[in-house]
Amino acid sequence: MRYLRIARVVAIAAAGLTGGSGDAGAITERVVVNRYTGLAIDGHDPVAYFTDGQPTRGDRDIEAVERGAVWRFRNDANRAAFLAHPEIYGPRYGGYDPVDVARGRIVAGQAQVWLISGQRLYLFSRDDNRSAFMADPAGVVKQADGQWPVLLETLSGH
What count of Cα atoms within 13 Å lies in the side-chain half-sphere of residue 25? Predict the structure, then answer.
């Protein structure tokens, strides 16, 4: 059984503790991480999905902490790209399956079941959900966007 915990995303102001863009907006997204390691996407490089077209394990010596999770990268260039644009390279909905999010459920996506659509990375809990997403990506995203704020409240425990 895979053990997961949910890490809180923290918005850091322009003081730049993470070297981010300085956006001090009220970010409340959650990210799926391994309960014991704190790794997002099971240690896979999020940028490699875009550059290599496949899940690629990151190097334990090339890491960054962003959105409350530890992210690994296969090279320094991928790390720099991610830190410059985590909103692009990080999986949408924090790595939760967008089809399940659209149905009002929180189910962690798997690193090996993925798709890039609209320049965003999506992780799915199973192949059937990826196929359902591919049939109507705009419709699924619209429904998921409507459910996501409610689900975030559930995740926050409020």
Answer: 7
| Block residue for tokens 């309960």 | 35
| Measured distance CA(140)–CA(133) in Å, rounded | 6
Of 8, 4, 1, nearest in space to 157 by CA? 8
Query: pLDDT tens digits, residue range 26-77?
Result: 233 488 998 889 999 999 999 999 999 999 999 999 999 998 899 999 999 9
Name the residue among 132, 101, 97 with its Cα closest to residue 112: 97
Nearest of 101, 85, 148, 139 to residue 117 by alpha carbon: 139
The pTM of the full predicted model, rounded to 2 decimals, is 0.80
Rounded Cα–Cα distance for residues 15 and 17 (Å): 6
